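Batch queue: ligand-bound targets. Current item pairs a single chain with magnesium ion. No template structures supplied; prediction is de novo from sequence plus SMILES. Inputs echoed for audit trail.
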Amino acid sequence: MKKFFQPDALFSSFDKITPKYLSERGVRLLFTDVDNTLAPYELPEPDERVTAWLDSLKEAGITVVFLSNNHSDRLAIFNASLGLDAYSDCKKPFIGILKKIAKEKEIPLSACALLGDQIFTDIWAGKRLGILSLMVPPIKDKTTLFFRAKRRLERPVLKKFAKAHPDHIDLSFWKIKE
Ligand SMILES: [Mg+2]
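Prediction returned. Tokens below.
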């Protein structure tokens, strides 16, 4: 069960994941979370960093699909200037929608990857599908009790990952050193 919660790699931010990194791993379709992965909750539209990163992926022939557990209005506004495939209310970690999208696009799961900021929704979904699962720290976390509790549950998983893959993680950034 534990392996479902282990990301395959941790990055300090989304744009550290380069087209080269993905292409070298045969990735042609990247599912990505939006909130706290690409933008904080309160930022309605993508900033220049997000746009530039998405452009670089497109140039490399990598299809990006937004997968959000948030509601459709949020995603529609964020995606208005981008025009990517975007799915709201995805209910990650359920994976039915991901399978359906990959099938529709005729891209095998072996050529898919997933990016997100939460272990128990994003990473769990990616690992259940058996695809490359990449994690970034939340850009700006909600401070509700529920979110703080969730983050506390993530810590031992991340610590374990850091121990097993010291070269795959910027420890100081993630602040999970012993
Ligand atoms: Mg998120």
